[in-house]
Structures are given as C-alpha cells and as structure tokens.
Amino acid sequence: MKINIKEAGDYFRGLLLLIGKDKRITEAESRLLKRIGKALGFEKEFCDNAIHDILVNNYIEESPPVFTSKELAEKFIKDALFVATSDNEIHSAEMEWIKIIAKKNGIYVRWVLKEMELIQKNIKSISKLEAESLTVY
After folding, report:
1. For residues 57-72, average pLDDT
2. In degrees to the nearest 10, what's the CA dihedral of 135, 46, 116, 4?
3. Residues 75, 37, 30, 124, Cα dihedral to 10°
4. Cα dist. 80→19, 44, 61, 137 in Å?
5. Which helix (H) or strand (E) holds 108?
6. What integer best gives the mean pLDDT of the chain?
7. Dist. CA 123–CA 85, nearest whole Å
C-alpha cells in the first residue's frame, strides 16, 4: 500500500503519542518505534530524538491521526496494539488513545478489541509490522 509522507508522519506521531500515554517508554516500545520509523523512511537520528523527547515535548500535535483510508487506519491500529502490548500490558491510557483513533477513523471498538485478543494470543509469532508493508512516496 502506498501512502504519502504526511500520512507516514501522522502514523509515526500517533504511535509516539501512544508510547507516551503511560508516562514511561520501555525498551520494547522504543525498538518497535525505531523499526516503524525506518519502515516509514525516517532517519534514525530523527526517530531516536523523537522517542527520547516524547515525554517532554510540549510542541507535538496531540490530535488523533485521521487517515485517508480505513485500510490504513486498521494497519495503524494493529501496529498500535502490538506496540502497546510489547511490554506485556496495555495501560488504560494507551487503550483509550487507540479507541479514540479508531472512532475518528470510523472503526468499531468491537473490531479493536477482537484484534487486541488476536495480537495477545499470537504476540510471540508476529514478526512483521503493518508499517513494513507500506511504501511512502
């Protein structure tokens, strides 16, 4: 799937905000965000700085990302659930953020909960992130 650079930025920003919701960033979350940033074409240094600064950056746009297609929004939510689950728990603020994004993109919360169950059951076998199937132009 092809996406433009603005959507790639919104995808990364939405995940950055997600990992900051519980006021702590785990090593697993950091690794995944770096991997997603690379897949979206962002420089390593940019990703490192953004992850490091997310808890203190007062200038990042905090509105939930709204994507141009439901398919892209679903990919984002799957990655968000995987990132949120990577530290073996989903903080309530992280789950609330994912639900807000789902609603803004016309996705039922019921679908989100079903995807969360699938990810939790299969977390050890998931090797590819949704962002890694995207091509940014």
Report:
1. 95
2. -30
3. 40
4. 9, 20, 18, 22
5. none
6. 96
7. 8
For residue 60, the one-letter residue type is I
pTM of the model: 0.96
Percent of the chain with pLDDT over 90: 92
Token match 């909960």: residue? 113
Question: How far apart (Å, rounded) are the C-alpha atoms in residues 16 and 9?
Answer: 10
Confidence label for 125 from pLDDT (cuts 50, 70 and 90): confident
Residue recorded with tokens 């690379």: 38
- DSSP code of residue 64: P
Calculate the alpha carbon distances from 52 to 31, 34, 44 in Å. 12, 11, 12
Q: What percent of the chain has pLDDT over 70?
A: 100
Which residue spans within 80-136 are E strands per DSSP? 135-136
